[in-house]
Amino acid sequence: MDLENETRVSEFILLGLSEDTEVQPLLFALFLMMYLVTLTGNLLIILATVFDAHLHTPMYFFLANLSFTDVCFTSTTVPKMLVNIQTETKTISYGNCLTQLYFFMVFGQLDNLLLTMMAYDRYVAICHPLHYMVIMNPRLCGLLLLASWIFSVLDSLLHGLMFLRLSFCSELEIPHFFCEFTQVIQLACSDTFLNDLVMYFATGIVGGIPLTGILFSYSKIACSLLRISSRQGKCKAFSTCGSHLTVVSLFYGTSLGLYLSSAAMQNTRASAITSVMYTVVTPMLNPFIYSLRNKDLKHALKTISS
Question: The pTM is what?
Answer without folding.
Answer: 0.90
